[in-house]
Design brief:
Length: 345
């Protein structure tokens, strides 16, 4: 029988790609999303790729009654918890909204899981917990640095809440996946990232600029201590990231003990500068990207990339797709949603 997996935030960027991979691996995804940062069209994209319509509850992870209904209606084997607000700048302006949504949301979910005997939880964490690491590549043993935004703090607190719940003796088996920089889209271009308003993140900004929706990209700083002076990140294709979640669920199923918490980096292990990312985009699309070199963005870390060995050892997972693959897929997706560029690849 198919195992039911509750995917909170399943209509979002990462959740939708994970939903596809869950289905392909024989799991039954059950989505819960309040569509605060997702569009209903993603459900059509999921149907196009998989040929299936998955159960999808439109509602809030803070809604205890709704969670109770979902856990009572479906025999849930495990939960992947994506539902969260994620805009760093907005979290500085509206901290309470972020703590309520991301922290209270997690607590409400954990309570519902505990009262319905659901033990397996994959939690979306972030490399932001490391701040600027002292040593690179950054391993899971590196100290967490004080969060530089309420958003980042919700990830640190989230990990601690789960760890404390496990320590308390509750039946809970959980892994926090610390994502590096997810980019790209499903190769079919049926689903991808749909940023609302002006994107903060590099790749949506690049693709929107190339599509003519924005005048030019500003590279935030070229005086860092890196080979070309621009910041270094570990860009990971969202389909590789999706695979890591499936592997994580499979790993949780094998655990003998009922109480388990671990943190695992999900990155490629390779760092790329902003200029390298631009060059990759230009190479795979044949398009020249208009950009200028600008000032540093406050709060940016200079360089961060993952030590990826633990994911390989524990989850038997490693990234296979390249920065070029991700840029190509991100561009196909951008062309699909903007319909503004039909130039050959
Ligand atoms: P996203 O905004 O595309 O997806 C999150 C989804 O959750 C959205 O569809 C939104 O409508 C939904 N949601 C938010 N609050 C909800 C609530 N209270 N109840 C129900 N649904 C709710 O974001 P994403 O990029 O797919 O990120 C998924 C997770 O991964 C988040 O927890 C995010 O913090 C984390 N993360 C993302 C990145 C990244 O760069 N995208 C990096 C590190 C960690
Ligand atoms: C951002 C978030 C971080 C989150 C991560 C992954 C901030 C301050 N941090 O970090 O909390 O964990 O995404 O979701 O928002 N860049 C430009 N020009 C642009 C946009 C970006 O040069 O217009 C550069 C940035 O300076 C950075 C790189 O591109 O060096 C990547 O930026 P971005 O995609 O925003 O990710 P992070 O900085 O890693």
């Amino acid at each position: 029988m198919q195992k039911n997996i509750l995917v909170t935030g399943g209509a979002g960027y990462i959740g939708s790609h994970v939903t596809v991979r869950l289905h392909e691996e024989g799991f039954q995804p059950i989505l819960l999303d309040n569509f605060s940062n997702a569009n209903k069209s993603v459900l059509e994209g999921l149907k196009k790729i998989t040929g299936k319509v998955f159960p999808c509850y439109e509602g809030d992870v803070l809604d205890e009654a709704l969670l109770g209904k979902i856990f009572s209606t479906h025999q849930i084997q495990g939960v992947i918890h994506f539902a969260a607000k994620k805009a760093v700048g907005e979290s500085v302006e509206k901290p309470l909204s972020y703590y309520k949504n991301n922290v209270s949301g997690l607590i409400t979910l954990l309570e519902a899981m505990m009262s319905h005997g659901v033990a397996q939880l994959v939690f979306s964490s972030s490399c932001t917990v490391y701040g600027q690491p002292d040593e690179l590549p950054v391993t899971e043993g590196s100290p967490k640095k004080p969060a530089n935004s309420p958003y980042g703090n919700t990830k640190q607190i989230g990990e601690e809440i789960i760890e404390d719940t496990v320590k308390s003796g509750q039946r809970l088996q959980s892994i926090a996946l610390r994502y590096f920089n997810p980019i790209g889209a499903h190769p079919s271009a049926a689903i991808g990232e749909l940023p609302l308003g002006t994107p903060n993140n590099l790749v949506p900004f690049i693709t929107q600029t190339a599509a003519g929706l924005r005048k030019e990209l500003t590279v935030f700083g070229n005086d860092y201590h890196t080979p070309d002076g621009t910041c270094i990140r570990d860009y990971i294709h969202v389909m590789d990231l999706a695979d890591a979640h499936v592997q994580c669920l499979k790993h949780l199923e094998t655990l003998a003990e009922n109480h388990h918490f671990d943190v695992i980096n999900v990155g490629t292990g390779n760092g790329s500068t902003v200029l390298e990312a631009i060059q990759s985009f230009e190479k795979v699309t044949g398009k020249k990207l208009p950009y200028t070199l600008g000032l540093r963005r406050p709060g940016d870390v200079e360089k961060v990339y993952a030590a990826a060995e633990k994911a390989k050892e524990v989850l038997h997972w490693q990234a296979h797709l390249t920065l070029d693959d991700a840029m190509r897929d991100a561009w196909h997706w951008q062309q699909k949603i903007s319909g503004s560029d039909k130039s050959p690849m």
